[in-house]
Amino acid sequence: MIRHAALMCLLASPVLAEDQTAPDYFVDTVVATGVAQQLARACPTLSLNPQTVAKDSDELMNQLAADGVMSAEEMPWAEDANTRIEAQVQAFLTRTGLDEPTQDKVCDVGLTEIAEETAIGRYLLEVPA
Predict the structure, then answer these.
(1) What digits encode the pLDDT tens for the residues 66-120?
(2) CA distance 98 to 103
(3) DSSP code of 21?
């Protein structure tokens, strides 16, 4: 979670405005974890799966390091990442009907993501209310 937050802070840095393409694995992981976190916050019967978040966060950091990304200056594709993340999140909201969410709708979508074993669903757990 802390690493995810650190990556999001890196993305916000104005130093990263060069126009390059973000790695798909980065965009996909940030979208899946971010959406799962928001679903878990909005639904009392959903929670983040901390083991999966930690494991995937470590894998993401290792992949970034293997690709030579060790600091904000080495992420010149941040603007592209932000644009793609926003587009994927909006597509998810539209596809699932969550552009106008209710708590019941959020919970239903989260449970569907879990049942369908999607990238987002991997980060969620059903918990008692």
Answers:
(1) 988 877 677 788 889 999 999 999 999 999 999 999 999 999 999 999 999 999 9
(2) 10
(3) P
